[in-house]
Amino acid sequence: MKNNTSFDTNKPLDLICLGRAGVDIYASQIGAKLEDVTLFNKYLGGSSANIAFGTARLGLKSSMLTRVGDEHMGRFIRQSLAAEGCDVSHVVTDRERLTALVLLGIKDQETFPLIFYRENCADMAVSKTDFDEAYIASAKTLLITGTHFSTGQTKSVSTLAADYARRNNTRTVLDIDYRPVLWGLTGKGDGESRFISSDTVTTHLQSVVPLFDLIVGTEEEFYIAGGSQDIITALKNLRAICPSTVFAVKRGPYGCTVFDSKIPENISQGFSVKGVQVEVLNVLGAGDAFMSGFLKGWINGEDYERCCTYANACGALVVSRHACSPSMPTLPELDYYLKTAHAVAYPDKDETLNRLHRKTRPHREFNELCIFAFDHRTQIADMQKQAEAEHISISDIKMLMGKAFLACAGQMDKSLSAGVLVDDVYGQKALNALTGKGFWIARPVELPLSRPIEFQGSGSIGSQLMSWPAEHIVKCLIYYHPDDDIAVRDAQEKKIAELYHSCRLSGHDLLLEIIPPADMIKDNTTIVRAVSRLYELGIYPEWWKLESSPPEVWNELGKIIRRYDPYCRGIVILGLDAPLESFEKEFVGLRSQSIVKGFAIGRTVFKEPLNRYLRDRNELTAAQALVKYLTAQYTVSDGKEVPLFAGTFAIFGHGNVAGLGEALSAVKDIFPTYRAHNEQAMACSAIAYAKTLNRQRMMMCTTSIGPGATNMVTAAALASANRLPVLLVPGDVFATRAPDPVLQQVESFQDGTISANDCFRPVSRYFDRIERPEYLLTALPRALNVLTDMALCGPVTLAFPQDVQTMMYGYPEHFFEKNVRYCHRPAPDKVELEKAAALLRTSKKPFIVAGGGVHYADAVKELEKFASACAVPVSETQAGKSALSWEHPLNMGSIGVTGSSSANNLAKEADLIIAVGTRLQDFTTGSRSVFGNRDVPLIQINIQSYDAIKHGAVALTGDAKTILHSLNEYFQSPLSDSAWQKKATDERSQWLKTVESSTAIVNPDLPGDAEVIGVVNKLLHEDDIVVGAAGSLPGELHKLLKVKRPNAYHMEYGYSCMGYEIAGGIGVKMARPDREVIVMLGDGSYLMMNSEIAASVMLGTKMIIILLDNMGFGCINRLQAACGGQGYNNLLKDCIAPGGPHPVVQFAEHARALGANAEKINSLHDLPEAMLRARASQKTYLIEIKTDPMPSTKEGGCWWEVAIPEVSASPKVNAAHQDYLKNKKELQAK
């Protein structure tokens, strides 16, 4: 029967397939119920995709038009089609939907359960914008499957494509592809049903069939399209609608019947071509194979007998195999089958057919293979042993070799192909790293040196291969000689046959490496006869790996391979540890041998470098190793990849100068060492640096043993209380104890393992003593985990014995690999989140307490968004201050003992407290008195579960930024009622007035702290950072300082450490050198730790220091009075001074003596001009002003529990105790 269809032969594409593209998950266990299957295989699926795949395999230029998800399965579909030569330019990635999946089983010859997972899948979202008319016009044929007419969306798209085709002389094909489940006619789990009558579907299909030149389907599919379960009636109904369309009816074992004109009265009167009789394994996908074969003939203009013959043969081959698309035949395979089909009842068992199916499928071409072989196991182990380098991991060596290969491959000429031979005994990590990058990869299966050959690993070789990536080539080295002892030869041949069969089943290519045994005579015929014999045994590897031979041997090998296996991928030459020079001449001579595809060499290039590496590698002192490890740690800060450690502070002594001093000196350009004048101070500087950068970067501090070390204990406690990272590395006594007791050693009479450094244990998040150089291999990763984990974050102490610092050890190279550490943001538990959301939904008066965690989590924007959208007023702890701008209408100011009246008044009436990133210590909660009652619900958002459960809170554990983002998705409208919003507005307005009155200048010659802050408020620039820590100022700054941007307020109040301010200012300036740092402190703090003024001048970390001299400890003096006590030992005038009146310290003069610029002002009116001079200064500038120790802002604040003596001779103390009891009673009554 003649095919009268005409095609435009000038079009570049033969076929465009529009329709389903998914992934078939096929049950591997044939006969099992689908619910009992435990093993599956993954294949390309979807009718249209299968046809695009099948036609491309048969030589047509096909293109796929569909959508896939933006995920692994979508990429798999695109890769599978492209590998067959199918155009995927119009396989569109849908970022909103997932790729369709189908689960399929094979129970018996009649039962093929399948479940479609196609809810809102990507291929059904194909859009009119995914293609244009020119694309459709570029093909001779457009095929659409019926499923893509099943919805309004897909019907409109498919109809448009068909219209484009008909306008541009592109032939149209409909594959009816009727699946009742996809038309909503069955339960979602019933994908197996192939026919359910439906007038709706019939009407739907009949509205589009006139668009097509060819319609293909089974008899059941023509029933649904024609509206009758009598095939002739159905065909006649369709003929009435589309008089010139060709109908091709698939009839299973009866073959195919074609109708191109009038429909006869009996189907047998149509043009029929009998099908091929085979043993059926799997009918799923046979129709797509049939269509592929039919279109191969139809589009090429062959007559219908040939079209049907192709179609029947393709269908027969696929039904005899597992799966659809990978079972599609190639042209050589189809040609062979058409010649032998009458004699092949079981195509899946025919050796030649299966070999053609394996070898003639499209595969990546490798040109001039350059293979780096490092699959050696015993050889490298021997080299390791000879070098006495057992401490060096062979796995690490192979990772280094893999990296070297990647570096070389990246520089190779693009006309060459790179490959590797790697084992999985030592090289699994290297294999994993190289897989998926497009390289030629082979891995060995033989047990080294075994003869007869044995396979490594446990279990059968076939079971081992099932876990291998498909791209890996199975390499087997066999010491084989055709004249070997018969028993040995037979044993070897049986093993190779077993391996070859296993590769056929697993789908892996096989490379056989033949080396004649060294103790046997060999000549120029040995390898030729060996290869011939294996072919005669039915073993056809894809690759051979053979040793160098004379030209006549290569000529003979080429003839043999072409005779037995013209589809062999080729031969690669093995190196056998030969000198590199010996290869050059031979490689040139082999260019004429087309069967030789490249070379594989290993020890030739790595033997000498590896020997040197094993002898000389990374022999470092422990101190050098610690520093090298730290320099390899990176992070992302302010959007840039930067070193995690900005360097180290160090004060050297006998306990660290020889070891760490030497190591640090060698890396001063990349890991700078900063000298300080006081160990506590330098640790405070390092801590302030980390705090300023929201814990994203940090510093190390190292000291000698003894007082140098214990001076840092206070700083460690400060970092621990504030949850801030710092790496403390104090020197320690000799680990060997040989010279005990050494200078500055603290001896314990009860415990010989204790040194002064054990003081760090209770104030360190992680403590370790490095008593051996190799301890660093575990201690440093643990330390860095603590330092960079936002929940565990805090000080780490590594006590480093001075002798161990200098000891040498061979550290593995990978230990020093660059490691970029990213901020881990754990999401909240869904149950916790919903519980918190439920509380928020019922709240009418919610109130936020923002802590330092808001800054550390970089959650400022998320907090502002949540507060604004939900109309929730916000208060700030000392660490949380500046989370909202002072000018933000929802910023109620500070909370707690140093809190604003606005924040504290709202806290008393709130019906829900939302604490974000705060420990809720007693200054924040007013010893738990600031909230209206103990039963007010509390949500604690905190990354540390230890904090999240405090005060009986509803814990919402996780990253504050992530959690607030989730809450922002839950809530986009006000949670609070209008009355609460008005109260917040009124309270804020009143507090702003209070601030103005409290900071107004009353006594410019002896002002209070608030008056000074009032002037500072007017002088601050938006980018300035104000630093404080202890005494009177933190309370006033908390209440009164107007901070307008995040991280412009740096207050250390978790430990409230006097002396922190100047040292902290250095760290702040190092972190933010582009911003002005203004340190505000009292005379008490200054006198405690002022030496770092000299350090700031030396380091160039310019600060402005505003020193408020109230002549003593004014803050504690006021607390003493509040507790009923008389002034004693706080203000200098109240201290014992046997030598005469209390000293008058000239602070400005002292600062100048330390190298700073300084001045003393006598009136607050002089501060603006002094600040101008300070800003203009190129180095640290101190401004001294006398202040009144007595006044403080009375407004705001709340009760704070400070225990009062129960008995006293002082009436004032007794009265204070009664007030204390009264407040306690009121608190307990809440």
UniProtKB/TrEMBL annotation:
Residues 15-330 form the Carbohydrate kinase PfkB domain. The lineage of its organism: Eukaryota, Metazoa, Spiralia, Lophotrochozoa, Mollusca. Residues 659-744 form the Thiamine pyrophosphate enzyme N-terminal TPP-binding domain. One of its GO terms (biological process) is isoleucine biosynthetic process. SUPFAM superfamilies: DHS-like NAD/FAD-binding domain, Ribokinase-like, Thiamin diphosphate-binding fold (THDP-binding). Residues 1030-1185 form the Thiamine pyrophosphate enzyme TPP-binding domain. Pfam families: DUF2090 (PF09863), PfkB (PF00294), TPP_enzyme_C (PF02775), TPP_enzyme_M (PF00205), TPP_enzyme_N (PF02776). Belongs to the TPP enzyme family. Residues 333-634 form the DUF2090 domain. The keyword ATP-binding applies. Residues 833-967 form the Thiamine pyrophosphate enzyme central domain. This is 2-hydroxyacyl-CoA lyase 2. It comes from Potamilus streckersoni. The keyword Cell division does not apply. GO terms for molecular function: acetolactate synthase activity; ATP binding; flavin adenine dinucleotide binding; hydrolase activity, acting on acid carbon-carbon bonds, in ketonic substances; kinase activity; magnesium ion binding; thiamine pyrophosphate binding. GO terms for cellular component: acetolactate synthase complex. It catalyses: (2R)-hydroxyhexadecanoyl-CoA = pentadecanal + formyl-CoA; 2-hydroxyoctadecanoyl-CoA = heptadecanal + formyl-CoA. Keywords: ATP-binding, Kinase, Nucleotide-binding, Thiamine pyrophosphate, Transferase. NCBIfam families: myo_inos_iolC_N, myo_inos_iolD.
